[in-house]
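Tokens help. Consider this.
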Amino acid sequence: MGNNMNISNAEMKVMNHIWEAGEMVTVPDMVTILNEEGEEWAYQTVATFLRRLEAKGFLATTKQGKKLCYFPLISKEQYEKNEAEGFIESKFGGSLKNFLVAFRGSEKIGKNDIEDLKAWLDEFDD
């Protein structure tokens, strides 16, 4: 999986549902799941997103009877790890420290976040 494997927000939504499902899904299954969120997703649109995700190497298909089923080739954790590493590599010269320094003085990070991060870094030594 290269870092050029960008997923659009809509594709990400589809992918998240596939990870949540934890089982093989068909296009009609996916249409139902997505439309339960109150959005109108057309069969054709969903089929296109699933095909794109397959082309990008995130999904594979298998035939079950007459049904074409999609399943993930990569876990959500693996995807997030790849994304995070790619982001730090391309935007911060591969330095996690530079990434974290960018948050200095930021309103977005509270005391609790800092404490959690310190505890997490301590565990890293094990």
Observations:
- Residues 76-92 form the longest helix (17 residues).
- The chain has two domains: 1-94, 95-126.
